[in-house]
Amino acid sequence: MTKKGFQFEQQPAEQRYLWKEAILKDPSGNKIKLYWAGENRLNPPWKVEKRV
Question: Which SUPFAM superfamilies match (predicted)?
Answer without folding.
Answer: Glyoxalase/Bleomycin resistance protein/Dihydroxybiphenyl dioxygenase (SSF54593)
